[in-house]
Amino acid sequence: MKIFQLLDRKNAEAFLLVIFIFFVFFVRIGQPWNHKLSHTYPTYFNANDNFLHAEFSDYVKEKGNYAYSPYYMYSGYEDVIGYLPPILYHLSAMLSHLTDLETYDTTYIIVMFLTCFGYLLVYFAIKRVNETLAILSLPFMLGIFSFSFEIAHAWGLHIFITGSFFVFALIWCMENFDKKYSFILLSLFLSGAALGHTSELIFSIGFIVVLFAVKFLRKELKKYEIKNIILGFLIFTVISAYYLTIFYFTWMKTQPFTFSVMERPIFAPNFSVNIWDFGITQFILYAGLLFFVFLILFKDDAEKINVKSTSPVLIAGIFMLLIGYTNYIGFNIRAFQTRIFWPVYLAVFMGLGLYFIPAHFKKWKFRYAYILSFLLVLIFFFNHYNTLLGPGLIDQEIWNGFKWISENTPEEAKVYHFYSNFATQLDAFFPTKRVSYVVDVNDYIEALKAGVIKAEYKSVNNALIDTQLPYRTSLFSYGYHAYEDDFKKRSENVSLWDMNYYFFVVKDPYDSNSVLYLYNNYVKDFLKNQTWIEEVYSNSEVVILKNNEPGRKPYETQ
Amino acid sequence: MKLNKLEIKKLNDVHKLVIAYVVAVAVFQVVFFAESFFVVAKTVAFLFWLFVLPGIGITYLWDLNFIERLALAVAISAATVGILSYYLGLAGLHVIISAVLLPLIFMFLGLVIIFRKKIEFLKTKTK
Questions:
Q1: Residue A446: is it exposed, middle or buried by C-beta count within 10 angstroms (0-12/13-18/19+)?
Q2: Which residue of A21, A97, A188 is in closest CB contact with B27?
Q3: CA of B82: which chain A residue's CA is closest?
Q4: Which of A316, A328, A522, A533 is deepest in the core (most CB within 10 A)?
Q5: Do the chains contact at B62 and A191, CB–CB below 8 Å?
Q6: Which chain B residues have a beta carbon less than 8 Å from that of A61?
Q7: How far is A549 from chain B (nearest CA, A)?
Q8: Is the pLDDT of residue A498 over 80?
Q9: What pLDDT was estimated at residue B10?
Q10: Above 0.90 for ipTM, yes or no?
Q11: Which of B67, B74, B92 sits opposite A14 (nearest CB)?
């Protein structure tokens, strides 16, 4: 029994938390990254957003600020304002400068770091309610493996994770709102959510409103809480006003809220998070939610087992559970995103599911709680083991091709990309740091089926038009390039022959669709046969051609 | 009144910070076992520089246990350093300067808070 004497309550907690964090890091980043911290190309980048956020970080690293957006992501416009939530990009750029790691590595490291410390903040928030409950809740934050819960990391919803981290911090803050100067934390975390991922700010405010409404109805609202809220919101307004103005004229103006029903998330139609993704543990969750209703109805019962039903962490759990279903009233993609972090928001109810009944018979012994928690952490770890593995969409040779473009072509060059396994993940082309056009994959496949090489293919202007290319004319006045004729010219009737460079993936070890690569080779040869087009770079997977006379078409010479 | 050594020690968590760094390096080294120790140690050091040290002093405004303090410090640091770096960037300060300057400023602020707490603590104890 000496081991138990050595592991006093404090040490046991530290041990459990370190082991938990170690396991989270191991399965979520260690394994996908082949246990390397620095990489020579973006590893485990599986979707658009991975590339997007890493590229923005790289841009901030190079430019030193995020006043404007990179022209090559916006069809060559240099005045598009920096409108995405900027915190992650700045933190990633800073870490990259300090460590010499590439921004595609630092971005991922930071979001994992924030995720883990977010878990800890929620754990400590639950601990304020009840220590045993916190110990029992912790393992469920990693939870049973379901890829739906892993989308945020694997598919690069990195700014969403950053914003969510500040929601976790806010939950801790509201749980500790009786502390002196807590309004400072409130203002910081609200601002963090605003500049981290603004939809998380909206949910944070909603959570605070609901929490205070519950407290008011139950006559538990204190004077100092109102004072702290007012002070906190005042400071938050000052800190965030500038960015929120940009947010208003970009996101809110171009994507106003409308009532609509979205049944599947557009970013992952096959991976919508549902309550049954909790697998066998969903029954513990249902039990926890049921016990929570008991606690509301029977106040004496709540006192007996020492769990206050109006605790912010419990209210936050219910609130985020409901937010997860607001895809039926117009919150669409943001509602689905929130579901990804249900394991964290709802962990307290899982803990309650385990804690509730035994607590009625006998006081929980910490030793048993720790042992049970440790066992669950272990089970969930092995459940995740070897589930998230690399390498991702691109490999070293393709990355070398991208780097060649970014380092050896004029800044105003236009690059045309033919088929590759990432041709539908258009943000993957942004690391070339050049304005890019991408072949319409459907049109390309049709041409292949017809057995012809066309002189023109349908093309996509690879510009981020989510907010219609906003530019500022004065502090409160904006224009939008996407509504102007000039942008239409840049996007419609795009000719292959106007491009400066052609990027071909001629072989891809991760893609078995070899017919399309064979077709790529034929098209490449067709272009290369034109006297004004020459090969300027090649490796085992990539060929880059240079068009020395943009605008010249083959029929003029043939 | 003679001061209890343990009580004064409560305000001096430097050794705990060092232990936290060593534990973090150990965790990172095992997770990223294919990486060199130097890269791991450097990365963790700068993670602490950006995400722990700027906020840890500010957390001494409240009475917390050390791991909770550490988690809160990460949230405070990410918010303060991230937001200020953005605004300073708009004002023309390159992000690389913010990476050095901002943690230093917040560490100084943290030290002032700890120092004042220490004085307050000593005053109440000697009364």
A1: middle
A2: A21
A3: A87
A4: A316
A5: no
A6: 95
A7: 39
A8: yes
A9: 60
A10: yes
A11: B67
Range(s) of the domain holding residue B59: 5-126
Number of domains in chain B: 1
| Confidence (pLDDT) at A557 | 40
Q: Chain A interface, mutation test: which of B37, B83, B97, B104, most A Cβ atoms within 10 Å?
A: B83
> What does the pLDDT read at residue A207?
97
- What lies within 8 Å, CB to CB, of A335 at 6+ separation is A262, A323, A324, A325, A326, A327
Count interface pairs A-B at CB distance under 8 A. Answer: 168
pLDDT digits (tens, 9 = 90+) for B34-72: 999 999 999 999 999 999 999 999 999 999 999 999 999
CB contact under 8 A, A26 and B75: no
Q: Do residues A90 and B98 touch, judged by C-beta distance below 8 A?
A: yes
Q: Residue A384 and residue A333: Cα distance in Å, rounded?
A: 26
Q: How far is A99 from chain B (nearest CA, A)?
A: 6
Instruction: From chain B, pick out residues whose CB is under 8 angstroms from the CB of A181.
Output: 61-62
Amino acid identity at A287: A
pLDDT at A558: 39
pLDDT digits (tens, 9 = 90+) for A374-409: 999 999 999 999 999 988 999 999 999 999 999 999
Cα–Cα distances in Å, from A398 out to A102, A515, A543?
A: 17, 19, 10
CA distance A420 to A441: 9
- Weakest-pLDDT range from A233-247, A375-389, B8-22: B8-22
The per-residue pLDDT for A450 is: 94
Classify the phi-psi angles of A432: left when phi > 0, otherwise alpha if psi is within -120 to 50, otherwise beta. Answer: alpha
Other beta carbons within 10 Å of A298: 12
- A514-547 in b/e burial notation, b at 16+ Cβ within 10 A? eebbebbeebbeebeebeebeebbbeebbbbbbb
For residues A74 and B69, is the Cβ–Cβ distance under 8 A?
A: no
Tell me the C-alpha distance between A246 and A82, whole Å: 8
Contacts of B109 in chain A (CB under 8 A): none
Q: Tell me which amino acid residue A195 is.
A: L
Mutate to test the interface with B, among A94, A180, A235 (most CBs of B within 10 A): A94
| CA neighbor of A246 nearest in space, from A484, A481, A475, A78 | A475
Provide the H-helix boundaries in A26-138: 48-63, 87-99, 103-129, 131-137
Closest Cα in chain A to B101: A94
* Residue partners of A231: CB distance under 8 A and separation at least 6: A183, A187
Q: Is the pLDDT of residue A150 over 50?
A: yes
Q: Say how many C-beta atoms besides its own lie within 10 A of residue A130's C-beta.
A: 22
For residue A180, the chain B residues in CB contact (below 8 A) are 61-62
> According to the model, what pLDDT value does residue B11 have?
61
Nearest residue on chain B to A176, alpha-carbon basis: B62
Q: What is the pLDDT of residue A46?
A: 93
Q: Do A165 and B75 touch (CB under 8 A)?
A: yes
For the stretch B94-107, pLDDT in tens is 999 999 999 999 99
Which pLDDT score, from 0 to 100, does residue A350 have?
97
